[in-house]
Design a protein that fits this description.
Number of helices of chain A: 9
Protein name (chains A, B): S-formylglutathione hydrolase
Structural class of chain A: alpha/beta
Order of helices and strands of chain A: EEEEHHEHEHEHHEHHEH
CATH class of chain A: Alpha Beta
GO molecular function (chains A, B): carboxylic ester hydrolase activity; S-formylglutathione hydrolase activity
Oligomer: homodimer
CATH architecture of chain A: 3-Layer(aba) Sandwich
Largest interface: A-B, 23 and 23 residues
EC number (chains A, B): 3.1.2.12
CATH superfamily of chain A: Alpha/Beta hydrolase fold, catalytic domain
Organism (chains A, B): Aurantiacibacter xanthus
Strand content of chain A: 15-25%
CATH topology of chain A: Rossmann fold
Function (chains A, B): Serine hydrolase involved in the detoxification of formaldehyde.
């Protein structure tokens, strides 16, 4: 599991790096970003994974997410994977919401996607091991967050792996792929028409089926163009209420789906994770 | 002086807007960004102008500059103009360091540049009047900053207009166009070979010729690839020392020329300006 350093930049008293490696899970080269605050020699820091939304690479949040000040303050390593396999031999779709840039954090079972679109395996297993082997992280202290499709990824990965993530949050997540057009298209395409199989990739269904988190933070803008048709935050409200699961789901007046929204609440999320990761 | 709103996004308890207008100074449409923190009805806020560097538009700092948290905290309006006129009828150069994206904040006198490349007039006169007429600013409380070519712009505009700017700072500025390849190319092209005319566009020459600022903050990364050949911070050190002009010029270990550097020190600069603008 060797890494190639693409770039490093000094930032906020730490190092913002970009790295690439040959991924076993996806069978492609994968690129990701890691921010490491300066720390005492030999120290191991907690790590927060951020899963990006549709159309994004590792670079969007790295450039616009404004996480470094808070990560430096709290001593948290911040990891930003890509949203899909890339490369000329990776199949794609004409839409922005399927194929490259839209891996949906699933293990595809349908052709031609199954060969490379194994983003669940990549983010759940390969990447954390790679991070643990190559960066000064205490892998017992992992948190996970994400935006939109990446919020869906964060919620479902954490719900499927009880106890692995000490903290879970999301920005404007897709809360139920079973109940929105983005989810219908992606899950039909990647894992087929049998909706029983979709439940492992649906935060609301996972909660209804018994999965629990000790705590959860979600921010959602009220002026988000995707709220009504795709994100449907109210379904998560209903799911956690029915399950009596602790969750803080905040509707943020006037905010949209952009990085202007994400960056506004990023420091809050990093602090929230740090409190749990450093507990 | 009517404005057209291109976009607005809620961010950090304020509004990040992008606007365009027909500029008299440049004879083109000009686009700029303004961040306005929420404020009491009828309040007038201080304003900080940020001049960008080579190749940038208004968007680079808007996306990567991380100024909104500090501006919201201190109640400062932040204005980001473009770096040159744009459009099909605007002449350009093959290099990234001349023509479009490289106006150098001068009034060009040489053809074919003179018609549109009047960025000094635009930034010194037209834009502040436009901002004063359309945003809740107290135009008596203006500060100015910028990066690289924009740091040059901020320093020279402030030095040429004593008393107008209550605060002046720069990130990795070109301190002496008379003494670097970027300056040689741009000033020869825009205003001709007579170097006497260049002194109005050279911070070190302006100081040597008697211009003074009450105070100045400059940050410069020690790992900046352009430091030795183009930026030459030591010339500014020498100029302010010879003039006995107060200035805080900080060499920042390991930082480069990128927005990772700028964003790291942005909150410091905004706070420094706010202290003087709110005094």
């Amino acid at each position: 599991m060797s890494l190639e350093t693409v770039s490093t930049n000094r930032a906020f008293g730490g190092t913002q790096g970009v790295y690439k490696h040959a991924s076993k899970a996806t069978g492609t080269e994968m690129t990701f970003a890691v921010y490491v605050p300066d720390h005492a020699e030999g120290a191991k820091l907690p790590v927060l994974f951020y899963l990006s939304g549709l159309t994004c690479t590792h670079a969007n949040v790295m450039e616009k997410g404004e996480y470094r000040a808070a990560c430096a303050e709290h001593g948290v390593i911040f990891v930003c994977p890509d949203t899909s396999p890339r490369g000329d031999d990776v199949p794609d779709d004409e839409g922005y919401d399927f194929g490259k840039g839209a891996g949906f954090y699933v293990n595809a079972t349908q052709e031609p996607w199954a060969t490379h679109f194994q983003m669940r395996d990549y983010v759940e297993n390969e990447l954390p091991a790679l991070i643990a082997a190559n960066f000064p992280v205490d892998i017992e202290r992992q948190g996970i967050t994400g935006h939109s499709m990446g919020g869906h990824g964060a919620l479902t990965i954490s719900l499927r792996n009880p106890g692995r993530y000490k903290s879970t949050s999301a920005f404007a997540p897709i809360v139920s792929p079973l109940n929105c057009p983005w989810g219908e298209k992606a899950l039909t395409g990647y894992i087929g028409a049998d909706k029983a199989a979709w439940r492992a990739y649906d935060a609301c269904a996972l909660i209804a089926d018994g999965a629990r988190l000790p705590d959860l933070l979600v921010d959602q803008g009220t002026s988000d163009n995707f709220l009504e048709e795709q994100l449907k935050t109210h379904l998560l409200d209903e799911a956690v209420a029915a399950a009596d699961m602790p969750a803080t789901i905040r509707m943020q007046e006037g905010y949209d789906h952009s990085y202007y929204f994400i960056s506004t609440f990023m420091a809050d999320h990093v602090a929230w994770h740090a409190e749990r990761l450093n507990a």
